[in-house]
Amino acid sequence: MNVAIIPAAGSGTRLGGSIAKQFLPLAGIPIIFHTLQRFETCPEIDAIAVALPISDIVEFGEEITRRDFQKPFHLVPGGKERSDSILNALEAVAGLLPEIVVVHDAVRPFVTTTQISAVIARASEVGAAILALPSTDTIKEVENGMIMRTLNRRRIYRAQTPQAFRYDLLLKANESARADFVPSEWMTDDSLLVERLGAQIAIVEGSPNNIKITTPEDLQLAEKIISPF
Ligand code: CTP
Ligand code: MG
Q1: How many domains does the chain have?
Q2: Which of 9, 33, 34, 171 is within CB 3.0–4.6 Å of 109 for a Cys-Cys bond?
Q3: Residues lining ligand 1, judged by CB closer than 6 Å?
Q4: Is the pTM of this model over 0.70?
């Protein structure tokens, strides 16, 4: 049993507006349904857990039925930070005894089923695997407006989602981070919690199209990616 965990409980402050970005239309369909469709069609995914603002859960459940999704859905209340939403979802699916969990942002609608399958396959071998993109820019570490050092570009990757883990490993990583009082707002991705345990995490090469819709410009770019002409 492999379970997708889709955090969708954020309020989209950087994008602004009164509707959270995951519910905004992209080519006429709410962004989150583009994303969920990729998991619905990925053969390695058996169930999908979505973390949502608590006030949206009932209506979202009706919408899932209306749109004729076939896989079992588990709608869970989100938490204060993204990592709190992930932990709520992890705990909510414990009864399914998942082997692999795949975490993917609701606001990355261009992930492909091939990419989802690839991170699951690597996580089954290694324990953890994430989609990441080699950096094309040279990255500088800066303090107070001054360069401290230059990182070796060949070793720099930009982390994306999906990120797949053996269920027990990701749960243990979350419990350990909380036991050590790591602030949840520092937990900007899931693999960093697993890194803290010293476990191996493989890289699967991602694609530049797999953008996270964060700003109004990203939303414009997403419309271009979906209909280039
Ligand atoms: N997310 C979540 N629970 C939170 C915060 C974020 O489930 N408490 C989700 C978002 O809905 C999004 C994903 O995590 O799908 C990535 O987060 P981000 O891009 O930061 O979205 P927001 O937190 O909504 O945006 P912002 O940081 O600009 O407020
Ligand atoms: Mg955020």
Answers
A1: 1
A2: 34
A3: 7-14, 22, 51, 78-82, 85, 105-107, 212, 214
A4: yes
